[in-house]
Amino acid sequence: MKVFRFLPLPVLLVLIAGCGGPDRAALAKQTVQDYWTDINSAKMETAYSLLTPGIQQTRPKSQFKQDMFSFLATVGAVTPKVSTPTVNGDRAVVPVFLTFIKQQKTLQAYQHLYWYNGNWRISDENGGVSQQK
Fold first, then answer.
1. CATH code, domain with 86
2. Buried-exposed string 58-81: b where 16+ CB fall within 10 A, e elsewhere
3. 119 is in which domain, residue-wise?
4. According to a count of CB atoms within 10 Å of the terminal CB, is the N or C end of the chain lower?
5. Residues 10-58 pLDDT 10s
6. Is residue 110 part of a domain?
């Protein structure tokens, strides 16, 4: 602690604050990016692992995979563009723009997340997105 003895108080406070937990906003944004990238790459097992346990309970992995492969067949490919999340405790809302290649259409939506065991998990019904913030 002698190192900090010579630092001005504002600098010391910034250093201490930077030692906190993970940047939850950045992690929320990355989780949504990874989720849709995994779906687009047909990595359905990996995408499924990003769902909350509650969503996984109500939606079996086989059904999720079947639905997502059907979704990809319909849209051709999906390209996500993720915006700045809003984090409130163990919940986050991430604006996302999903561009569907076949339709040449972009959907503006929101992905809802829940902090579970030190990671963000997708909490939208069936692993989809919502039009509601």
1. 3.10.450.50
2. ebeeeebeeebeeebeebeebebe
3. 25-127
4. N
5. 544 444 445 567 899 999 999 999 999 999 999 999 999 999 999 999 9
6. yes
